[in-house]
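Input chain follows. Return structure tokens only.
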Amino acid sequence: MLELPEVTTLSRQANDTLKGKTITQVFNATKPHKFTFYNSNPLEYGKLLTGKTILSSQGYGMFVDFLLSDQVMMNIGDGVNVRYYEPGSKIPANYQLLLTFNDESFLVFSVAMYGFINAYPEGIIDNKYYNLSKESISPLSDEYTPMQFEKLFSEAKKTLSAKALLATEQRIPGVGNGVTQDILFNARINPKQKVLALSDSQKETLFNSLKDTLQEMTFEGGRDTQTDLYGNNGNYQTILSAKTWKNGCPCCGNIIVKEAYLGGSVYYCPECQKID
């Protein structure tokens, strides 16, 4: 799933590779996917996008923007994989959208679970999650301070857990269940820990882990569980993920617990991440 490290990486790579390319053709889905969401009829995307040039790309929270000529905008969010192919590459059999460029390279959008592929005339976007992502201060920014983080706790209900605080309702846009695993492990906080029971010291540790873990993930080009614009896995080696949890805790060697919790899997070490 697209989270902040991958969004940042994809937008940087798109600026490096796609800037200046003109869209020559638009091909719609080869296989319908009921959990691919478009902001309008995707059969109309061809009329809107053909002949437009990619000017730049920007990332916000869980969205990647592609800014085109004539004030047209595309963006993707959540579970969309976007892959760039060099001229002459084999076209994949299944996709939800494909754009060809004037140099015969092409861009493929595909969705595994669910995702958003949007195209807007005039760059006008009416999506509350997009606007929240764009207007919020990124935790990668120096402007995201302990004061902003403390607001999450002041608004928290008594039952709110650490995972819920970080990974639900886009309280921190771009931070989801995936990156939350390592953030909480590095802070030695259990995902089920009630946040109002955290001490000031624990909250400070969690804030620092949020910043440091996301910065490392982003610096390494995303997580090793996700792919970038060129189809390569990120270089950040996840500590707790579907790839690693069976290896045991890297600190104490204990068995890692995997559980379904709040709509997704959580991984934690019962020894290093005890509930207070």
